[in-house]
User: Fold this.
Amino acid sequence: MRTYCSFLLACTAIMISATTHGGTGIEPKVIEHGPRDVNKIALTFDACPTGREDEYDEKVVDVLVQEKVRATLFMSGRWVEKNKDMAKVLAANPQFEIANHAYWHPHMLEKDDERILRELRRTQDIIGKVTGKRPKYFRPPFGEVDERLARLAAEAGLVTVQYDIASGDPDPGLSAKRIIRGVVGEAKGGSIVVFHMNRNGVRTAEVLPEVIKQLRGKGFELVTVGEMLAMADRKRDRGTSPAKSPGYRRGQGDVKTRGTRTGPTAAMTSTRDTSTSQGTDTRDALRTGVEHTGPTVSGAEQ
Assistant:
């Protein structure tokens, strides 16, 4: 009888765990950086839909290929649909890891659960059909995330990945020198840097060679997010530095504004910053985000 009861308790625990994580076994969490005690940095590039005819900056990818830089590319489902051939080419290159950036690139905190899951799953299906690969990681549009979104992403089988360094590359007011100084100056072991590859980055291709050169000159190895997190998992198994962020980040919108600090990752003001609408306890529990710019596009769902 005791054995039977123990069996029932074990089955109940498994069922509860599966329900909590949508049956995916993925813990709802937000990753902002990897372990700080390693000399690895992940460069990431967002491919948001823009509504323009040309949404692919081949010069950015050319630099990555020529410099043999491993990188993670966060693609929106709409971008993949419009750039199928290029998405296939990028996914076939072993240097690149393909990740999910929602479909329409909406402000997801304003959407209900059903819409959020539709955005995530639709993008998963499109990327899988076009490239033959199914992403493991998701970056929220505009860098806006809360516990609910992280939970729903986990339910869709995705780990939410943010960044601790925003390059500021879509801001036309930032000079190439300032972007380079900001990214390289703030780089730490485990940093995740966000750039753009959809022509929203005004000077991305211009600054990349120098950013890569200087980061490597400081002893950093450039890896994908997946490689960074695999390293974090190994360290966690040994009881050392975890990669999980202690809090959640609320981004401040894809509005082209400039910060007051010398680096492009300064906290910035946005007309869409909704953090002040949260209660004090909730706001304190969320990590203030930095600008992640780029326009949304019109479509059936926004």
Q: What stands out?
A: Residues 23-288 form a domain with the TIM Barrel fold (CATH 3.20.20.370). Residues 1-20, 240-300 have pLDDT under 50 and may be disordered.
